[in-house]
């Protein structure tokens, strides 16, 4: 962990380092809410914190800057940068982390890869990082408090922790797609996959929460 902060300070502006620290702490707090029912959940808060710290490591980079820094190309890196410039850093992040820090935990690398687009089948760590990036206290999003409430105030006590993660992802991906369409920006296929897996077909308490607490924002 002590190795990561100096790297963040080297490659990111101060405001982005501060964001990364807030995401790390938010992710750790979310992970602590996971019921301790498996061996893997024991390490989740620690992994969530590390993933939060590292998730935006490539945010200030470009394909050219990566090359200049001697960091290996990824096969789809140039075309993704051109078509989906806001997404690219998520795919470049694991590659940059490995280059700078050596082999990385596969679950953390995967969570970083999907932290911007989401995807169809998200692990608890993928989900926690994706949500923490949106609800960390420095974010200005109007629906941020409603999302945090899903976890903080037990307004959805009948839902499992996994169901709450799924509901939060559905809200975030829907908000993201609406924002992209308003700006006539391309939607990455993984974002659509995330939407189809989490928003489409919502039922029960999740759907009720959506209608009563969330839909007014869109
Ligand atoms: Fe971020």
Can you describe what's shown?
This protein has a single domain, classed as Orthogonal Bundle (Hypothetical protein af1432). It has 12 helices and no strands. The protein has helices at 4-11, 14-32, 44-54, 63-68, 77-83, 88-101, 106-113, 124-135, 144-152, 161-182, 189-198, 204-214. Helix 2 (14-32) packs antiparallel against helix 3 (44-54), helix 3 (44-54) packs across helix 8 (124-135) and helix 6 packs antiparallel against helix 7. The protein is globular. Fe (ii) ion binds next to helix 2.
Q: Which spans of ≥5 residues are poorly predicted at pLDDT below 50?
A: none
Named once each, the bound ligands are:
fe (ii) ion
The count of β-strands is 0
Mean pLDDT: 90
Shape: globular
CATH evolutionary superfamily = Hypothetical protein af1432
Number of domains: 1
Q: Quickly give the structural class.
A: mainly alpha
Rg from alpha-carbon coordinates: 17 Å
Helix proportion: 55-70%
CATH architecture: Orthogonal Bundle
Stated plainly, the CATH topology is called Hypothetical protein af1432
CATH class: Mainly Alpha
Task: Figure out the total of helices.
Answer: 12
Report the end-to-end length measured between terminal Cα atoms: 39 Å
Sequence-ordered SSE layout with sheet pairings:
Elements: H1 4-11, H2 14-32, H3 44-54, H4 63-68, H5 77-83, H6 88-101, H7 106-113, H8 124-135, H9 144-152, H10 161-182, H11 189-198, H12 204-214
Helix pairs in contact: 2-3, 2-8, 3-7, 3-8, 6-7, 7-8, 8-10, 10-11
